[in-house]
Design a protein that fits this description.
By secondary structure, the chain is of the alpha/beta class. Helices cover 33% and strands 17% of the residues. The chain contains twelve helices and 14 strands. A hairpin with a 4-residue loop joins strand 12 and strand 13. Helix 9 packs antiparallel against helix 10 and helix 10 crosses helix 12. The protein is globular and about 65 Å long. It starts with 19 loop residues before the first helix and ends with a helix. Bound molecules: zinc ion.
Length: 387
C-alpha cells in the first residue's frame, strides 16, 4: 500500500483519477512480450523507476492485454486495447470513431473495420480529451476523416506544457516534458500516479530524456473542428451530441451522446483506468484533483446526469454503467468535500483529518485502503487553493 505522505509543493499540480499511461505503457509492453501482468509488472515498474523496486500493481487493477471488438447497442461498438477502449458508430455514410489510442492500435482497428464493414471509411474522429494514451494514432485515419475535439485541445497542443494527469507537471518550469516529471509521481505512489519514463523517452528526438511539447504530441493529430460547450453532429441518419461536461480529469473533455443508441461514451471521467466492472472505486487523487476545483468535478457529474441516456460506456470499464453509477460518483465527491470542508472549519490539522475522516459509507469501494488518505489530502489542498 502506497500513500502520499507529503504535500505537493506546487499548488496547482495536475492530478487525475488514475495513472493511465503507466497502464498503457505496461499494456503495450505486455502485448509485445506476451506476458501476464504478474509476470511483467515488477520488472517493468523497476525499469520505469530507474531501478527502484516498486512491486506489481494491486491485483485486478488493470485489464489483461488483448484486442477485440464488442457490440454495445444499435449501431454502436467498442474496440479495446487491453483496458483502453474506443467507440465507433457504423452508419450508411461511414463510421464515426471516438479516440484512436495509439498508432499501432489504430492500424489494427483500420484493418478490422475494413474487413467487418467494407466500404464504410471512418469519416469522423471525435477526441475524448487530449491525453496521449487515448488519442495517438489519428493520422492513420486522416485520409478519410475529419477530427473534432473540445477547444481546450488546441490550447493544450499550442506549444505550452500541456495539462496532464497523474500529478505530472512542469516541476522545473523549463517548458519541456522531462522523464523525471513523469517518473517522480509514479515512484511516490506507484500504479496510481505518474508514468513511466518511456512515455517521454520514446518521443524525445535524439533519444534524450526531455521532449518538447511538439515532440510529445507528434503522434496526435490536431482537431480540424473544435467546439466550446456543445456541438451536434448529424451524419448518416444519426444524431450525435458532443458535450463538454466541465473541468475534471481533463480540461478539454468531450462526452459523446449517441442519441439513437441512447448511449453515452465518456473517457477517464467518470470512469478511469482503475475501473473494471464497478464504478464504486475511489479516485486516485494525484495532486489536488487534476488542478480543477471540486465544484467543477461535481458540476461535471451533474452535466452528465442531465443527459438523456440509458447506458454509459467509455474508455475504461469492461461493462456498461448506468446513470445511477454517475450519480454515486457525484455523491462521493460531495461527501468528500463536505467532510474535509467541515474539518477545516473546525480547525483540524491535516494530520487530524487523516486519522478522523474515515469516509465510512465508502469502506466497501475499491481501493478504499490505498486511496482514502490521498483523497483527503487532495480535497484538503483543493479546498485551500479554490476558496
Ligand atoms: Zn486522461
Amino acid at each position: 500500500m502506497l500513500i502520499a505522505t507529503r504535500p505537493s509543493p506546487a499548488p496547482l499540480r495536475a492530478a487525475w483519477r488514475l495513472n493511465l499511461w503507466t497502464a498503457a505503457t505496461l499494456g503495450a509492453l505486455l502485448l509485445a512480450l506476451g506476458l501476464s501482468v504478474a509476470d511483467a509488472a515488477q520488472p517493468a515498474a523497476a525499469a520505469a523507476a530507474g531501478g527502484t523496486e516498486v512491486g506489481p500493481p494491486p491485483p485486478g487493477m488493470f485489464a489483461p492485454p488483448g484486442r477485440s471488438i464488442t457490440h454495445v447497442a444499435g449501431d454502436l461498438y467498442r474496440a479495446n486495447n487491453g483496458g483502453w477502449y474506443v467507440g465507433f458508430l457504423v452508419t450508411p455514410a461511414g463510421i464515426v470513431l471516438v479516440d484512436t489510442l495509439s498508432t499501432d492500435f489504430a492500424r489494427w482497428l483500420k484493418r478490422q473495420l475494413a474487413e467487418r464493414f467494407p466500404g464504410k471509411p471512418v469519416k469522423y474522429v471525435i477526441y475524448s480529451h487530449s491525453h496521449w494514451d487515448h488519442v495517438e494514432g489519428g493520422a492513420v485515419f486522416a485520409d478519410t476523416a475529419t477530427f473534432i475535439g473540445q477547444e481546450g485541445m488546441l490550447r493544450n497542443m499550442d506549444g505550452r506544457y500541456p495539462a496532464l494527469p497523474g500529478d505530472i507537471v512542469d516541476r522545473n518550469d523549463d517548458g519541456m516534458l522531462d522523464a523525471e516529471e513523469f517518473e517522480q509521481p509514479f515512484t511516490e505512489r506507484p500504479w496510481f500516479c505518474g508514468a513511466f519514463r518511456s512515455s517521454v523517452t520514446s518521443k524525445a528526438q535524439g533519444g534524450g530524456t526531455r521532449a518538447t511539447p511538439a515532440e510529445f504530441f507528434a503522434e496526435v493529430r490536431k482537431p480540424d473542428i473544435v467546439y466550446s460547450e456543445r456541438m451536434t453532429l448529424r451524419f448518416g441518419g444519426k444524431t450525435i451530441e458532443l458535450v463538454f461536461p466541465g473541468k475534471n480529469h481533463a480540461n478539454d473533455g468531450t462526452a459523446v451522446l449517441f442519441t439513437d443508441e441512447r448511449t453515452l461514451f465518456a473517457t477517464d471521467f467518470p470512469a478511469d483506468a482503475l475501473v473494471q466492472k464497478t464504478m464504486r472505486s475511489l479516485p486516485s487523487a494525484c495532486g489536488p484533483f487534476d488542478g480543477h476545483p471540486l465544484s467543477e468535478w461535481i458540476r461535471s457529474y451533474r452535466t452528465l446526469e442531465g443527459l438523456d441516456f440509458d447506458i454509459l460506456v467509455g474508455g475504461h470499464g469492461a461493462v456498461a454503467f448506468s446513470k445511477r453509477d454517475v450519480a454515486e460518483g457525484r455523491e462521493y465527491f460531495e461527501y468528500l468535500r463536505h467532510e474535509v470542508d467541515a474539518a477545516m472549519r473546525r480547525g483540524l490539522s491535516l494530520e487530524q483529518m487523516r486519522k478522523t475522516i474515515l469516509l465510512e459509507p465508502y469502506r466497501d469501494w475499491a481501493y478504499y485502503d490505498q486511496l482514502r488518505i490521498p483523497n483527503i489530502e487532495a480535497a484538503y489542498y483543493n479546498l485551500k487553493i479554490y476558496k
